[in-house]
């Protein structure tokens, strides 16, 4: 059961509590029975929910343990294959890509790549026909630069 006071506080009481002559512990006003009751789930629903969550947790734990075993197996296999590769190479160290020699072809047809530029060839892009009137817009320092340099 829920009791409501004039001060706005709500209090819960066990079912079957008499509603007469109850005083608010905060302000001392009279508590009246609320027009609605707070819905409560039966205990059996909570028990079933806990069982379902427990089962899901057990399933996930089992999957995690299986995945960890598989990871350990794959790590062992990787180490075994690395050792086998070492033996096949004669015990030499495995080369690292950053230590590999760089070969540059400097023949006559080789040219260095051009670096990108921020300039665009405006002849390839269509000219805008209509621009909005921005005379009232605030001016930025970059707005004072001409769009097309004289030249």
Main attributes?
single chain; 151 residues; 3-stranded antiparallel sheet; mainly alpha
How are the secondary structure elements laid out?
Elements: E1 2-4, E2 10-12, E3 32-33, H1 43-89
Antiparallel strand pairs: 1-2, 1-3
Rounded mean pLDDT is 77
The helix tally amounts to 1
Q: Strand order of the main beta sheet, please? A: 2-1-3
User: How big a fraction of the residues is strand?
Assistant: 5-15%
Number of strands: 3
Backbone shape: flat
The biggest beta sheet reads: 3 strands, antiparallel
Low-pLDDT stretches: none
Distance between the termini: 87 Å
Q: Helix coverage percent of residues?
A: 25-40%
Topology order in helix (H) and strand (E) letters = EEEH
- Radius of gyration equals 40 Å
Question: SS-based structural class?
Answer: mainly alpha
Structure characterization notes:
- The protein is mainly alpha-helical and 151 residues long.
- It has one helix and three strands, in the order E-E-E-H.
- The chain has a three-stranded antiparallel β-sheet, with no helix packed on it.
- A hairpin with a 5-residue loop joins strand 1 (2-4) and strand 2.
- The chain is flat.
- The relative contact order is 0.06.
- The model has no long low-confidence stretch (mean pLDDT 77).
